[in-house]
Request: fold
Amino acid sequence: VLGTPVGGTKEILGKLDPFLLFPDTSPESMANSISRYIKYPRLEELGKRCREFVVRNYSWDNAITEFDKLIKME
Reply:
């Protein structure tokens, strides 16, 4: 996953690796970042870390747990 530094993307991807963020939203910047990403020598390792992060923080089980906490606070 790659993303632009807008909205919550910067906060989410920045926790994983700043390498995943485009410097800005220009087409040239995005194209350069994608080219760099494809050539990244540790791409597989980065992919595994990203998947682990998503499973740990954004799984359905985690979402249900957080939603349950929110409801119980009412």
In short: Residues 9-72 form one domain. The radius of gyration is 15 Å. Helices lie at 9-16, 27-39, 43-58, 60-72. The chain has one domain: 9-72.
